Amino acid sequence: MTRLNGKTAVVTGGGSGIGLGAAKRFVEEGAFVYIFGRRQAALDAALAELGPNARAVRGSVTDLADLDRLYAAVKAERGGLDILFANAGTGSFAPLGEITPEQYDQTFDVNVKGVLFTVQKGLPLMSAGGSIILTGSTTGVMGTPQFSVYSATKAAIRNLARSWALDLQGTGIRVNVLSPGPTRTDLALEVVGEEAFEAMGATTPLGRLGEPSETGAVAAFLASADSSYMTGGEVFVDGGMAQV
User: Which range marks the domain in which residue 43 is found?
Assistant: First the structure.
């Protein structure tokens, strides 16, 4: 497929997991991709997989100067931006009564503030036909024990997409949410534990965990003109977890 031929994409959290799965699919479909993340070793390993049509910029979505460096690199080499996948996120478990201010601040800083400024700073490089994709989660529409802070950030992401779709009226730029269910990533396995996570996947109607490549395929759809009449929406890639 070459649905993204000649397009320029930015993927935050692109060094591993869902971000890397999407970056791979974008490259396969003809895009030139910038991955952005905090861990240099992960970025280097991802570049080795992605090949010559990818670049890596190290930084944090919570640091506005790092975002400025990212977009300066995109502008200098590519001139503009067609696809922005605001995917970087974090989360940890804590039941009500044990939530700390530090946990709250870290989770909201990365998952909400980070997404907001990733999009706002990238927007000047985008034009009609551009696609913004935000990573949501099944937790944004479900009650999740011990995971309320993370879940609240993903509910916030859902409303950002609704509101930004209205803000972007008349620009030709679309914004949608891609919401994964339990997906086999290093971060998820670390936070949840492999055995517990496999058990969670088994409870979905499809009876298994999702793979980053499956989420990447849907990201490519949302990035392409095939989804040209979609904005302000949410697409679940969750094995049916939040659907039945």
Answer: 8-237
Q: Give the span between the Cα atoms of 43 and 165, in whole angstroms.
A: 31
DSSP 13-32: TTTSHHHHHHHHHHHHTT-E
CA 120/CA 14 separation, integer angstroms? 19
Strand partners, 235: 178
**Is 154 an annotated catalytic residue?**
yes
The answer to whether residue 24 is catalytic is no
Q: How many residues does the chain have?
A: 244
Catalytic choice (7, 24, 71, 154): 154
Domain CATH code at residue 60: 3.40.50.720
Residue 2 lies in a domain: no
Write the pLDDT tens digit of every residue in 191-221: 788 999 999 999 999 999 999 999 999 999 9
Characterize 127-155 residue by residue with b for buried, 16 or more Cβ atoms within 10 angstroms of its Cβ, and e for exposed: eeebbbbbbbbbbbbeeeeebbbbbbbbb
d(C-alpha 108, C-alpha 112), whole Å: 5
